[in-house]
Structure formats: C-alpha cells, structure tokens
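Illustration 12: Cytochrome P450.
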Amino acid sequence: MTTPATTVTPRPPHVDPALLREDPLAPLAALRRDHGVIAMGPNVYMALRAGDVLDLLARQGRGTRQAEGHEYVRISGVPEGVTARLLTDFMLFANDRGHRTKRGLFARSFAHRRIAAERPRIRAVANRIVGDLPRGAGFDFTDLMSARVPAHMIAALLGLPPSEAPVFTQWVYQVSRAVSPVYPVEDHADIERACSALCAYVEAHLRARLSRPQDDMLSELVTNWKQDPTVTFEVLVHQVVGLVIAGSDTTRASFSMLVALLLRTPGNWEAVRADRGLIPGAVAEALRYEPVAGNLTLLATEDLQVSGHDLPAGSVLRLSLLSAMRDPAMYADPDRFDITRTDHPRLHLAFGMGAHRCIGEMLARIEMEEGLAALLDAAPQITLERTPRMLGFGGIRQITAMQVRIG
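Figure caption equivalent — predicted structure in token form:
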C-alpha cells in the first residue's frame, strides 16, 4: 500500500515496455509476484498490484492527480499537431474545475436513467446487425458485428447519420492508437490525417446544429453551449470527438473479446444460451479478464512510497488495470474466466474510479448485454474459427482479427 516516503529504498527494476506489447499477461504476473512497482523510463513507474492501484486511485487530490492534457502529451511523446490539441483539451486529461466544466456538458445526456431508456433501441440496432451477418461462410466478427453496434448507437445518440458510421469509425480506429503508453511516432502522419478528418466532421455537424437545431444530443449540446459558452468552440468539438472515440473503439474490442471468450469454452456459451440472467456477469467478467483500457496515468504530487519503493514527487504513475484485475489479492483464481464470479467489486475497475470514471459505462454495458442477447437469439450456432488477441499493456489496447462462422 502507499504511504508518505520516509526511508531510502531500492529502486524498482527497469522493464523495457517492448516486452509487454505482444503478450503482456504472463510477464506481468511474473513481475507482480516479486515487484509491486516497475520502472518503465526516467521517472515513469507502473504499479502492478491491486492494493496499490486502488489506493493510488483513491488518493487522487491527496498525493496523486490525473495528468493534465499537456502533460499527457509530453509524457506520451505526441508531436505537435491536431492530435496533441485533441488530447490536451479532452475532459479525461483535466482536473478540478476544468474537468467538471467539460464533463458537465454531457451530464444530462449520459444520466443513467436516460441511457437505460435507450435499451430497446440498442437491442433493435443489435437485432438488425445480427440479421445482416453472413450465414454459411467465415467472416471477421469485429468488423461486421462488434464495430457496428457501438458506432451505430453513438451515431444515433448524438444525431449523426448511421450511414456515415463506417466512415467516421475508420478515423476513430486510427486516432485511438494515440492513447498508448508509447506513442507510435512512425504512424503519426496517418493519425494526424484521421484526427483532422474526424475533428472537421464533428465540427461541421455542430455548426449545422447552431443554425438549424434538431431533436438530438448534438443540438442540445451546442444550444446549451451557445447560451453559456463555458469553453471555446474548439474545446467543445474536442469533447464530442473524444466521446465518439471512446464510444466506438473500446466497446468494439470488448464485445469481440466477450463473445470469443464465451465461444472458446462451449460450456459458457451453452450456459448463457440457457440462462440469459448470466449475461451481465459474463460482460463483467470479460471486462476484467481482457480489459481494453490497460492502465490509467496519474502524477505524484508529493513523495510517495509504493510497495516499498520511494517515488519522488513529479513521478509518472501508470496504474496497471490489466495486472490489478489478474491479482489474486483482488480476485479468486484470477486466471480463470468465470461468468458466475461473485467477487467483482461494486464499481468495476475497468471503468476507472472517482471523478474520472467513464461517463459511458452504462451505455457500454447495455450495448454488450443486448448485443450478446441478440446474437444468442438469432445466431446461437455461431462458431469461433480464429481467436482474437488483445495487444498492448496500456492505453487503448488493440485487438487482432476474429474469424467466426454462423451455420
């Protein structure tokens, strides 16, 4: 656990981030047994144990804080440009009043009661997409199912034409690579082009609502902003872009992993077919077992001691959700995928904690639950031909191809 630093302690072992990119779970487990903290660069540390991760998250404002946008850009090595400006402005990388102001723009739209009321519409979208899936031939499940449900729903909620979802999601998948512990500088030109296109796309829709409001979330958002412009228009655009990214890419990978994990063990697939009451537990377990968000990034605002190591004020603290949710101190038999698990905490760690907890948590859960129910109803004989893998250990992790067949 974390305490104020009082004595000199050994430095944490240094680990090359490249060792964790392809298959992070086994090395993280080996490291976690002997080290609660590892060093990943000059003054950059990763906490691996559940107790430390939870404690550091709970200490926000009292020894730790969320990295501000400009700090995150510097830490991650994002070159100057539109991507850096997006990350600098987005609500996730803000604190205190700045965070409350940006998040508050969406508080009413993402209220639990309002999102819960969308469940029938989400199910209708999922039913239509499952009905369109090929029968009798293999296909990429992520492209034809997992990507479409969240993209069509975020489009429907915001008021974007569903027909444009395939276009803006291609930009989303490029830009999401920017949220990585090691920024892919070699792909910066592609990321910048996609980010520019995505920002221009959202800006055009917001400006259209300024002159001709419609009955949708974008109109409500921009109308409220016009009456009380608490942020600049560019910052408003960046908040919507960030929501589109978060609402499209993370659920896409999470849903594919949910279905793959269930199909990989036929007993689980048959269990949820027989008892739909197991669906919420299956969703929660998939989010734990292969989380899309591999870590959260904080800064130490004072000297800390974590798992016996002194970490100076100003340290970058990467809190490994991937490692913490495989820690036997948090979960019994953590390497077993168990859809009947009863030891999930009330607030699932996959969505973060505190003021920065994911604003779209309920939407993501409902999309996965209703997507799975639609698949079980209309395509119960689906089989897995190529199992996907989750790559990376932090930021938004990437998923490999998933091949399935129906009938």
